[in-house]
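Example record

The entry below shows one chain as it appears in the dataset: sequence first, then structure tokens.
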Amino acid sequence: MKYQVIVSVSQLISDVVGLSTLRFQESLSIINNYANSDKGMQRTCFPLEVKELTKKIRTVLMATAQMKEHQNDPEMLVDLQYSLAKSYSSTPELRKTWLDSMAKIHIKNGNLSEAAHCYIHGVALVAEYLKRRGAYPQGCRVFKNISTNVEADESEGQEDFGMQDVQYTNESLIEMLEEVAEALEKAERYELLGEVYKLIIPVYEERRDYQKLAQAYSILHSAYTKIVQVSLSGKRLLGKFFRVALYGQNFFEEEDSKTYIYKEPKVTGLTELCQRLQCLYTEKFGKHTVRLIKDSNKVNMKDLDSRFAYIQVTYVEPYFDERELEDRQTDFERNNNVRRFMFETPFTKDPKKAHGSVDEQYKRRTILTTSHSFPYVKKRIMVVYHQDMELTPIQVAIDQMQKKVVEIHEVVSMVTPDMKKLQLKLQGSVGVQVNAGPLAFAEAFLDKSKLRNYARKFTNSLKDIYRQFVQVCGIALELNGTLIMTEQMEYQESLKENFRNMVSKLEDIFDEKLFSDEDGKSISLDSTNRTSMSLFNVISSPTSQA
């Protein structure tokens, strides 16, 4: 009964964030007074139990008061509900109540992946509850292939007094798994449907429920078909990531100097997020109090004015080392269960200049690690660790050229060629002026007169990348020649002429033959397959910390 009262109050106020808690507080005080003044109950445990019950309800009410204060701040609102859900890890129905409330907020704001993960955590805690009852031996660990967050979050709770009131069954579990599957499909996380139905289908088979089995396989067929379609079209958008740092003790209080990674829907741009955050915090703190820090440099707290709230927003990308990339071959895999992110800041030895000539240009690569993996039940997660690497000018050159090789390789490897993308890559590689394009790096670092200035391991790496670059450009030119119409023949000849001139100059610098067949017919695409891994080897190798 006590448990059901808390659940009912939680469900009521989670649905109505703006609900006043004053009358609730007054009612609780009256109940306490009655319990303590009832002479027939004074020698029983009843008054103490009432006191414990009202204390738990007051905890919910206090959290609700904070939610009301932040009801226009979706990130803070979800954070508060997340904290409340976490505090009820030992009482499944209460935790699920707040997870469901978080899902509603996410759906309202278009964060469908986060809503799906609220449902995933909800069904996982039920699985763990059933495990403790001997009804589902696997518990929440069966969800490890769906989310790396689940086992840590849902296996830590201890049984509370209310557990005996819970009526979850294996039937409840299957119904919730079906809800998870539907949510994942809406979020376009089709690859996870297979993992969910691995848990559902054996139950259908045991029941000999052929209608449900037919529906399940139909859903899976549709999901896998959609994976093929979005892989070919590239039109699925799984979200963008940004680093958001908050500064200003007078404004952000306990959030001062904290850094988060935000996951924003679809194609949200840097400008759009900056405007949203500036409007949000201006509404909170007042006009002319919020300032955006428009670069990604390290912030010196001494340079900040205590009269203002500062927000620094930086676009980041998921970061993986070479070993991780072997297992993350698709776009989905590189956007699922990710917790390390990277951004880069250019600089020179002159503190007044961020940019310089290629032999002066350094780059700082910052790798951020969050407390949990994305997607999660929240769309912003705190950064718990960061690492900086400084790339010297020749390492910057290696990195830039390797990225160019990978980009061209990805375009020429597409099952259905995209002529527009192909020509954009060609234009940026062989259709540019000598000093503004890839040749600039070769002249700066590989010319015979300059080789002695750099370690051999770096010059050899850069030479090897140029050999790959010449090969993949040859393949790209050949492919473009098969796609163009007659009116673009002159453009194709211009690209080929630029390519021959570039190769000729590189051969002079290298003092070796780089390209024996001007049509590129003797080159196999397979010879460039190692380029993707080479890029991340350069990123993560100890040499990049020099």
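Notes for this example: Confidence is low (pLDDT under 50) at residues 518-536, 538-546. Residues 456-483 form the longest helix (28 residues).
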